[in-house]
Fold each of these.
Amino acid sequence: MSSARPLSGARIDLESGAYRASIASIGATLRVLQHDGRDLVVPFEVDEQRPAYRGATLAPWPNRVIDGRYAFAGQTQQLALTEPERGNALHGLAAWLDFAVTDRAVDAVTLTATVQPQSGYPHRLELEVSYRLDDEGLHQSVTAQNSGRGPAPFGTGPHPYLVAGPGVVDDWTLELPAAEVLTVTPERLIPIGLADVAGEGGGVFDFRAARAIGDTFVDHAFTALTRSAETGLATVTVTSPEGTGVAMSFGAECAWVQVHTADDSARSGLAVEPMTCPPDAFNSGTDLVVLQPGESTTASWSIAAR
């Protein structure tokens, strides 16, 4: 039926100057972002089930909880294994929630949803996701408030696949201002430890000076980020040989960024995922936010054409 709800949920189109974006309500997902008609992220159709986590908002954890098992507040919890091929709980609980639109303008939208207490995560969170376009690009923020009765572990981040221009990831140049990379096991991506990007793998992960990605495989978290002295932002930039590009900037609340060459998607875009905590933070506790009842936290990031 023509009146059937799109598979990606409600469609929210935003416009400002040369920028156009489209948000899907399921997962508060960035479905389309363009500048002067040029894609800045890998898009998908409005009446298409979102491919994996493309553009989704990740909460109450980004990345992986290994084996889906962790201990918090004296209790051992077991999450559903949503990455069954690796035996992990992947990218939180919000990605398939249908967010409600609570505020709307031509260039901005606010969406809300509740993470209800459930097996493996017995906490209630109120999530508010805002998107705003202006001459500087797309700005997204995620606010989480603990509306439950006890402390709750929390982390967040987005999952866009950036597009520099024509071609694929192999053709583009990456500038990633990170001095350390989190090494992982090859099969299950279980964290091992931090390494200097200049030494690990002969410097294969060192993109502090912009260079071609080529056929390098990356699916790693990076930290020890160099930030602007003026704004406090770290910026990851991807550029095509034609000179077009896209940049993603994020504040100090995101001390980590996951970068993935999207080998399972024909390397059509570079996943750049600012994160408030690293993979498996529910177990390591590294940079994990613990929200007391009534407390809230916010993280923000931006995407802009270059």
Note: Residues 11-305 form a domain with the Beta-galactosidase; Chain A, domain 5 fold (CATH 2.70.98.10).
Amino acid sequence: MFNLELLGIEPIINASGAVTRLGGAPMPEAALDAYCAAARTSIPLDHLQGVACRVIAEVTGAEAGLVTSGAAAALTLGAAAILTGFDLNKMERLPHCEGFPHEFVMAREQRNGYDHAVRAAGARLVEVGFHEPVAGSGVRRVETWEYSSAFGPSTAGVLYVYGSRSRPPLVEVVEAAHDHGLSVLVDAAGELPPRANLHDLIASGADLVAFSGGKAIRGPQATGILCGRRELVGAAALQMLDMDDHFELWEPPANLIDKARLPGLPRHGIGRGMKVSKEQIVALLAALRLFTEGRYDQDLGGMQANLERVASALEASTVHCSLIVPADAQSLPTLEILLGEAELGRSAFEVCRRLRHGKPPIYVGHSLLDEGKLLINPLHLNEHRTTVLAKRLREELCR
């Protein structure tokens, strides 16, 4: 059996969850089986994406869907589709957009490092609004009229980063954009669960929605989903798929790409480097079925028990443990460990660093280090890893 240590690298204990830098979520056996089965055969990838299109459409209510090489790739492809549609000349010119609309309007407060994926397609971002409560200068956040006032002849669409607290509501932004004939691309990469978001964001009227496939869905780490209007998803597919064929012989799946709208085959598009393998596609579909059926919910009790074991192991320390159990019965529980830095004599950053440099290396969640907290996500924990994690935390925190 293959062992990573043969490559000279030591596997870690992941207490951070389904984060990209640590390899994403653990894949279920059904997804691994599908991956291996696909690896043993050959399948036309456009036909396989046609199958994926049908499955994704069924679970989201969208007209069409596409498996991408991650949510960031879905954003690049989605932006490219909005910029060009089925115009082969525009496809060939990307990321250079001189002479046609290429601006995406978005809320200033929603800017983040991932919007680079949209800019990579050639789009220029136009910011609107403020987040005055965060700035301590007022009570208002971005408002819908600010989007509308920014729309002009160079506007191609709207980029909206979805979250449960995003403002203004997505449905209002969609309505404003559609009143001006513009499409809305939604970044919902990490917004699963709840499972309802798969359907609800499309139901809002959004034209394209991007989800991660390697987080809550537990598909291959480098997978994502782009779903929405068929003509836009089809245009995105054209800019990713291998186009080295004869137009006369090419028979794309009709539910994904309308060949009748094309005068010929485009050259390899801006998304060619974002190709998705047959193994990734079928594994993502297998994992998506488990996710939509709620099969992962049965793991939550065991995950909570593992976190309770960790908290119990630290009862003799000066730290304070808080078990966070979401009420939706779909999201993972987490454990927050608040360090008394004065009593402990070292900061949360130092403890985090020492855990990473230990044997075995342990990576805990680091999003709350500024607050003096370690965050434990149980997604990758089992009985053995929980035991090792608890032991190492005792060594670092019980003095």
Note: The longest strand covers residues 155-161.
